[in-house]
Amino acid sequence: MKRNIFLILTIVSLITVASCSDKKTSSSGTSAANVTANATAPKTASTVTKKAFERAFNFFIVSDWGWNGYKNQQKVADAMAEVSDSIEPKFIVSCGDNFQVNGVESVSDPLWMTNFENVYRKPSLLCDWYPVFGNHDYKGNAQSEIDYSRISRRWRMESHYYTFARKINDSVSVRFIFIDTPPLVSEYYRSNGYPDIKQDTAKQIAWLKSTLSNSKENWKIVFGHHPVFSASKKHGNTPELINRIKPLFDQYCVQYYFCGHDHDFQLLKEKEGNKMRIYE
């Protein structure tokens, strides 16, 4: 349990210095603010002072969490709530596998209560949630997770992939991009267990390229479920994302990609140019 909580805390304040950092020029010649993760995050809320985060744009990132409160899900949710009282996160991002192990069947599926509403129930966690799909979500009725946005005050999954921008201050802004990686992975098409997996992936790639190319924000941060590269022996690299997604990240200078799937914590950094950091 301690490790799970620590992983939440280590990325609780991704843009902790974006509002006050000098701009730096990378080896690719592009100008960017110094966005960083809080690699030495405290273990308890009592040591997370509001002063330390008052100039930050704070938000949570969670992934592979949907266990109906079991497997330490409830303990991590309570820890999130405790820290939220101090840092006041703007929103919460979920990198998929929101419902283990077979997704949900409808917007009235009891799992919405036992897995989400009754677990993340503390007032400080009643902010907006921005999820993406994981492979386990596709084992159920994937559209239900989009439709739930129409009846929920905080579940904000408007489509299979979507984007929005936020201003950090008068000079720094961030483009947040949420992609749908399971339909890009060929192995799911060879199984009968993913009824909604067939998507127009060319349309999503075109959308991603357009979104990145038209972004005028200082920072571009992308969220998905599957890793591009991974040091884990459980799943490892995702060849389809290396071939189809990574070139766009490079071309349009995406600084961060956050994902899940391997159930561990990694920070992968480009060897040449330090163009992008990948968290999972």
Protein traits:
about 280 residues, Purple Acid Phosphatase, chain A, domain 2, 6-stranded mixed sheet, 3-stranded parallel sheet, 11 strands
Q: How are the secondary structure elements laid out?
A:
Blueprint: H1 2-10, E1 23-25, E2 31-33, H2 50-53, E3 60-62, H3 73-87, E4 91-94, H4 111-117, E5 128-131, H5 142-147, E6 162-167, E7 173-178, H6 201-214, E8 219-223, H7 239-244, H8 246-251, E9 256-258, E10 267-269, E11 277-279
Parallel strand pairs: 3-4, 4-5, 7-8, 8-9, 9-11
Antiparallel strand pairs: 1-2, 6-7, 10-11
Helix pairs in contact: 1-3
Helices and strands, in order, run as HEEHEHEHEHEEHEHHEEE
Number of domains: 1
Q: What is the general shape?
A: globular
Major sheet size, sense and barrel closure: 6 strands, mixed
By CATH's scheme, which homologous superfamily applies? Answer: Metallo-dependent phosphatases
CATH class: Alpha Beta
Q: Give the helix proportion (percent range).
A: 10-25%
How are the strands of the biggest sheet laid out side by side? 6-7-8-9-11-10
For this structure, the CATH topology is Purple Acid Phosphatase, chain A, domain 2
Strand content: 15-25%
Count all strands and give the number.
Answer: 11
Radius of gyration: 18 Å
Mean pLDDT: 82
User: What are the low-pLDDT stretches, counting only 5+ consecutive residues below 50?
Assistant: 1-47
Taking the alpha carbons of the first and last residues, their distance comes to: 18 Å
Gross CATH architecture: 4-Layer Sandwich
Count of DSSP helices? 8
Structural class: alpha/beta
